[in-house]
Amino acid sequence: MPDTTIRSEQLAAQQVEYMHLIAEIMEIRKRGEKPLAFIRTYGCQQNVADSEKIKGMLSQSGFDFADSPEDADFILFNTCAVREHAEDRVFGNVGALKNLKRKHPQILIALCGCMMEEEHVANRIYNSFPFVGLVFGTHSLHHFPELLYRALVDGKRVFERGNDDKKIYEGIPVRRDGSFKGWLPIMYGCNNFCTYCIVPYVRGRERSREKAVILSEARQMINDGFKDITLLGQNVNSYGKTLETPVSFAQLIREIDETDGDYWLRFMTSHPKDCSKELIDTIAGSRHISRHLHLPFQSGSDRILKAMNRHYDRQKYLDTVNYAKEHIDNVSLTSDIIVGFPGETYADFKETLSLIREVEFTSLFTFIYSPRKGTPAASYDDPVSAEEKGKWFQELLDVQEEIAAKRCSAMVGQTERVLIESVKEKTGELNARTSGNIIVELDGSADLIGTFQNVTITKARNWILKGALA
Ligand code: SAH
Ligand code: SF4
Ligand code: F3S
Q1: CATH of the domain at 35
Q2: Could you tell me the distance, in angstroms and rounded to a whole number, from the CA of residue 404 to the centre of ligand 2?
Q3: Domain final residue, candidates 160, 182, 207
Q4: Which among 100, 104, 247, 418 is least surrounded, fewest beta carbons within 10 Å?
Q5: Residue 429's domain spans which residues?
Q6: Does residue 103 belong to any structural domain of this protein?
């Protein structure tokens, strides 16, 4: 089924009208003072990119941005549903706004994002958080101005959960948080239905943006001085399969890479089942693509990978990783791992440990399995206690720390090209990142932020590198 792409002009015409109306209403309410919005984003980069669109729309509606909820006229939390802990944090932080709303009844409190696409969550917000005036899910992002307008003028609570997962809306204004490091969504949704994961239910089916639109946005970012551009999607290497003229992800990044300029191109996330040799060869032969592959394997046990519906086995994963090591000079590998999937035994978990030892990842994102309502795994038998899973988890962290330390100390003495990103508040040191996404701390002037520099690695402390300008 090809995507149904809604063209930008339609969106612009309808929603821009609402943005003007909001600006007028707020100008009267604030007696000419600029209204302020406070946006807090939970979850992954996909949510960060969505928040940048929301900020773009708010900016065009006359808003500036506040650093804390206390100063804002409009408070929005963009939520994540991936694990229970993420949801609990949102509920806790929303609850804390109750007093603020009591003191300042004119503020509008809103929730959006992945959690709001879960019916039971939206119902709980409706029933237990009466001070929340606007709720909308990921499928309603494109008509946020219209929803905000209704919440402002109708005086009624607006709750909207869409079912628009076959469409892509172009032309939404984006207000990027950074000036040299930026996100570029190339596709939305996911078709993989890993048995533990809520994402396909809250983000809908996989759909790709047109290659021409992505190329033009990427070139614009490069022109605007972005030095580190990350292409985003839940499974970027299945990019383009549903387009009218199918395009492979490798082809897309090859074409972006042809654009001249001093920048790094990254992407997230690749699924091991679709990580082709073509993609690895493309990275190896590119001028701008970072020497980094984030390739989540989740578990080292074939039995568990099958139960997770991941569509690859340990050997296929190792073959892919070994091909990458052979072909991409100095490749840095990172991964996501779930510990304690229902039915996982200690023997299965040891397979995960042995895979980590074999691959030697630079860093890992590790999670204890969290049951998600509505996913198949939530109904599987899960006999291992939380305490036991906690012990396995700690064992995993210890092994990875040892590996990361070994990998980092092997880099001492090398010269690396890094992008200087920020100043550490505590020490005044600069934070920088290598092409392989490894953090390096060094002394230097804050003027260097946003520039590439060559740095000699002088020390490795656990997994953090210390360097000096070369
Ligand atoms: N699309 C990406 C991952 C998105 S979610 C991919 O397939 O790699 C990010 C990570 O969260 C996943 O890789 C997984 O490790 C973890 N995760 C997802 N659902 C989870 C759950 N129910 N419990 C624990 N971890 C989970
Ligand atoms: Fe979730 Fe799997 Fe899709 Fe990643 S690929 S978002 S883990 S269903
Ligand atoms: Fe969370 Fe949604 Fe991302 S569930 S991890 S914010 S896609």
Answers
A1: 3.40.50.12160
A2: 26
A3: 160
A4: 104
A5: 415-469
A6: yes
Q: Is the CB of 338 under 6 A from ligand 1?
A: yes
Torsional sign, CA 156, 162, 164, 168: positive
235 lines ligand 2 (CB under 6 A): yes
Number of domains in the chain: 2
DSSP 360-403: --SEEEEEE----TTSGGGGS---S-HHHHHHHHHHHHHHHHHH
AA letter at 444: G
Q: Of all helices (H) and strands (E), which one includes residue 146?
A: helix 144-154
The torsion region of residue 335 among left (phi > 0), alpha (psi -120 to 50) and beta comes to beta
Strand, helix or coil for residue 198: coil
Q: Is 69 in the pocket of ligand 1 (CB under 6 A)?
A: no
CATH of the domain at 453: 2.40.50.140
What does the alpha-carbon distance between residue 131 and residue 48 come to, in Å, rounded to a whole number? 25
Tell me which residue has its CA closest to atom 4 in ligand 2. 234
Which protein residue has the closest C-alpha to ligand 1 atom 13?
A: 336
* Residue of 82, 294, 311, 366 best suited for mutating to test ligand 1, as the one with most atoms within 8 Å of CB: 82
For the chain, 470 residues long, give each residue's pLDDT as a single digit of tens. Answer: 455 566 666 767 789 999 999 999 999 999 989 999 999 999 999 999 999 999 999 999 999 999 999 999 999 999 999 999 999 999 999 999 999 999 999 999 999 999 999 999 999 999 999 999 999 999 999 899 999 999 999 889 999 987 666 778 888 889 999 999 999 999 999 999 999 999 999 999 999 999 999 999 999 999 999 999 999 999 999 999 989 899 999 999 999 999 999 999 999 999 999 999 999 999 999 999 999 999 999 999 999 999 999 999 999 999 999 999 999 999 999 999 999 999 999 999 999 999 999 999 999 999 999 999 999 999 999 999 999 999 999 999 999 999 998 988 999 999 999 999 999 988 899 999 999 999 999 999 999 999 999 999 999 987 789 999 99
In a domain, 395, yes or no: no
Let me know if residue 311 belongs to a domain: no
Nearest ligand 1 atom to the CA of 365 is 15
Q: Which atom of ligand 3 is nearest to the CA of 79?
A: 6
Residue 370 lies in a domain: no
Report the atom number in ligand 2 closest to the C-alpha of 298. 7
